[in-house]
Amino acid sequence: MKLKKYIVAIFYALSSTAVVSAQYKEPEKKDKIEALYPQVHFDSLQAKQKLAKGTATIKGIAFTKAKSKWGLKVGQRIYANQIKVTLFPVTPYLESWYTLRKEKESLRKRRYVYLSKNAYRYRLEAITNSDGEFTFPDMKPGKYFLQGFLGYTHNGTYNEYTGTGYNNYGGQTDYYQQKSYSVDHEDRIEAFVEVKEDGEIVRVNLH
């Protein structure tokens, strides 16, 4: 019985080794998400102090504009209806995150720059009304970063080719049918804002 257990143990040991040193190894997918983080130290005490209560107010309007087929934002404003706006104190860590995101983040290459869990803890949140308006009361003088994600649907029409007709004289007519389409979008809207003195009301457009 002991001999049998010993043989089984050897078999599993050899099997596990064979998996590691197999002749064929599956390569990693090229579209694997690459997560990047700032290398600057995050000072939680500094962030906490920056979010302490003050007497100033930040009032804003969050909106975007529909994108054209060339990627340009055109047309009327689309106001953020009941979305969450997040406020972060501007620290060396956040500045590093923002710079790194501009340099490295790419949807095409699937690279994303994240805040650490500890840094993300130090934030304030507000919900917009149907006109995109939001308020952060009780703010201290200092610099802040605001961010939100605004989803909307772009509707349009196009002419779809349905066939060609010919007449008795050799001419032809192409026929089209108008069809509707809709495309969902989500825009990241953000802005930096500075409160310069106690008691003031700072207004900002978040787009």
UniProtKB/TrEMBL annotation:
Signal peptide: 1-21
UniProt key word Signal: yes
Superkingdom of the organism of origin: Bacteria
UniProt KW keywords: Signal
Name of the molecule in the record: Carboxypeptidase regulatory-like domain-containing protein
